[in-house]
């Protein structure tokens, strides 16, 4: 396949990222997407069949606008309709591939294969994060991969990406304990005698556990220069502030990164210092927040992406992607929602509220690490919420409530939200919360948690607030406290399910 990796070295693509302007990336997105479309239409049996079925003549798709109007693909109408071999270039699997799978949370797992090229693309993002650390020459850095190392993509692609960074001459060492907490604490205590620079990689709730529980294992985070690489879940800026404070992180803009990735296409987009700065400025300015994020309820993840590798566009609020892989995906609907902006469009929105983005960048001291790559913002899928008497309840508001000082010493911050019905068929909302190790459930703690959740929902959720005025007793949450790492809702190391559409047994 004629992929970007074969055309450019890692140093060349990073040079482009640093130097090229917004218009270049807009042109690059259109050019690469059209090239991918025509290549897939010619060489991928499944896509050729899909286009024919939908009466699309590839020869008529000559512009970016034409391509955007082409029928979208998804898991249901494409990936599950064709044999796995037909989804790849040349229609066969007789080539070196790496397989990973989806979690299966919305059905049977889907298996995705990728070639070396996708790992290489991911390594560019990981190299950029390394560079944000501004390590001294030959200063050793230990990367601890705390993602699951099984069939899922997170652990394997993170390891492979940093391994490629190693091969480029960076002084990076790797260790892969996966989700084994005891092993993680043991290696930090032992290898911490040698390595002061540590990058922890993992799901946000799991990394929070590691940060919170480390002192009980006689680990003092002050002794280290800790940086954090997350993936797979959104989180708020208050979460970032909390974890930065606990881990004594020097600069949240440079020392934390959340990756927007999937088993489908690996590392698709990533937080940059600029993206985090914009997100934080939006949190302080509601007018700016509305102009960029359209006044949605949740705080979206805001990332930048490299159009030489992947592109995003939207139909309504649905995010569609075009991505090179051994299994190429064109106009692919992941089921995520949000929006896409060029760098120029972001600058324009800042100007509309009287802010100069360049001035804000200089004030934050991140000019060296700002790129004019395009942006994508993503908020949780519409099925990742629950309803209570018609009010849509989002996990983010519950997360915020559980981080209050009155309860944060008792809970890990992980929970699962579900709507249930009592014996009289009355609807109620149940919040299943995980206790920290050594903590015991109590009626008083349940009451405090319930009060904090109600208080936050009244402030943040107009629908809930309206219901509370007329039926307060009906919409008060039912709190269930579970032991630490209880397998029903809080199986260690797995991706946390914040919403359960199928109620589980009562604790």
Account of the protein in words:
- The chain has 507 residues and is an alpha/beta fold.
- The chain folds into 3 domains: 18-91 and 272-381, no CATH class; 96-269, ANL, N-terminal domain (Rossmann fold, 3-Layer(aba) Sandwich), CATH 3.40.50; 386-482, 2-Layer Sandwich (GMP Synthetase, Chain A, domain 3), CATH 3.30.300.
- 39% of the residues lie in helices and 21% in strands.
- It is built from 20 helices and 18 strands.
- It has helices spanning 4-7, 10-19, 22-43, 45-53, 64-68, 75-79, 116-132, 153-167, 181-191, 204-213, 237-246, 252-255, 273-284, 286-293, 343-352, 357-364, 395-402, 443-460, 462-470, 472-475; strands at residues 98-101, 111-114, 141-145, 172-175, 197-202, 225-231, 256-262, 266-270, 301-304, 310-315, 318-323, 329-341, 375-379, 386-388, 391-393, 411-421, 427-435, 478-482.
- The strands form 5 sheets. It has a 6-stranded mixed β-sheet.
- A hairpin with a 5-residue loop joins strand 11 and strand 12 (329-341).
- Helix 3 crosses helix 4 (45-53).
- It is globular and about 65 Å long.
- The relative contact order is 0.11.
- Mean pLDDT is 89; it is low at 1-6 and 503-507.
């Amino acid at each position: 396949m004629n992929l970007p990796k074969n055309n450019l070295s890692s140093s060349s693509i990073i040079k482009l990222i640093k130097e090229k302007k917004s218009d270049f990336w807009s042109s690059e997105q259109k050019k690469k997407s059209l090239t991918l479309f025509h290549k897939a239409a010619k060489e991928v049996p499944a896509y050729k069949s899909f286009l024919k079925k939908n009466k699309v003549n590839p020869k008529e798709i000559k512009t970016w606008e034409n391509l955007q109007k082409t029928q979208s693909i998804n898991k249901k109408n494409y990936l599950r309709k064709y044999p796995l071999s037909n989804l790849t270039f040349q229609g066969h699997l007789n080539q070196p591939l790496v397989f990973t799978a989806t979690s299966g949370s919305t059905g049977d797992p889907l298996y995705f294969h990728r070639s070396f090229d996708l790992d290489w693309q991911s390594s560019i993002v990981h190299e950029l994060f390394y560079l944000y650390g501004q390590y001294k020459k030959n200063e050793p850095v230990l990367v601890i991969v705390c993602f699951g190392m099984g069939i899922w993509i997170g652990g394997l692609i993170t390891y492979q990406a940093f391994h490629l960074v190693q091969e480029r001459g960076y002084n990076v060492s790797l260790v892969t304990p996966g989700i084994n907490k005891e092993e993680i604490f043991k290696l930090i205590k032992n290898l911490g005698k040698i390595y002061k620079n540590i990058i922890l990689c993992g799901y946000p709730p799991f990394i929070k556990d590691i940060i919170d529980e480390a002192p009980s294992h006689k680990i003092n985070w002050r002794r280290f220069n800790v940086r954090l690489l997350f993936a797979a879940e959104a989180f708020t800026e208050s979460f970032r502030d909390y974890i930065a404070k606990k881990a004594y992180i020097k600069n949240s803009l440079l020392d934390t990164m959340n990756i927007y990735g999937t088993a489908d296409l690996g590392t698709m987009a990533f937080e940059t210092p600029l993206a985090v700065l914009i997100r934080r400025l939006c949190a302080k300015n509601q007018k700016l927040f509305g102009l960029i994020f359209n006044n949605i309820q949740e705080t979206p993840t805001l990332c930048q992406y490299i159009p030489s590798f992947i592109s995003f566009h939207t139909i309504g609020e649905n995010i569609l992607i075009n991505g090179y892989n051994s299994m190429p995906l064109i106009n692919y609907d992941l089921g995520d929602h949000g929006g896409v902006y060029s760098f120029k469009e972001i600058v324009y929105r800042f100007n509309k509220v009287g802010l100069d983005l360049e001035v804000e960048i200089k004030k934050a001291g991140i000019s060296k690490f700002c790129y004019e790559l395009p942006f994508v913002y993503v908020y949780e899928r519409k099925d990742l919420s629950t309803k209570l008497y018609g009010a849509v309840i989002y996990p983010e508001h519950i997360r915020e409530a559980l981080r209050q000082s009155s309860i944060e010493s008792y809970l890990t911050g992980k929970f699962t939200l579900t709507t249930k019905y009592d014996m009289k068929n009355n609807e109620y909302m149940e919040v299943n919360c995980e206790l920290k190790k050594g903590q015991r459930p109590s009626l008083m703690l349940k009451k405090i948690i319930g009060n904090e959740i109600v208080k936050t929902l009244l402030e943040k959720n107009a629908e809930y607030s309206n219901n509370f005025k007329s039926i307060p007793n009906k919409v008060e949450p039912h709190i269930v406290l579970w032991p630490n790492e209880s397998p029903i809702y809080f199986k260690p190391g797995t991706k946390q399910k914040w919403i359960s559409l199928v109620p589980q047994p009562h604790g």
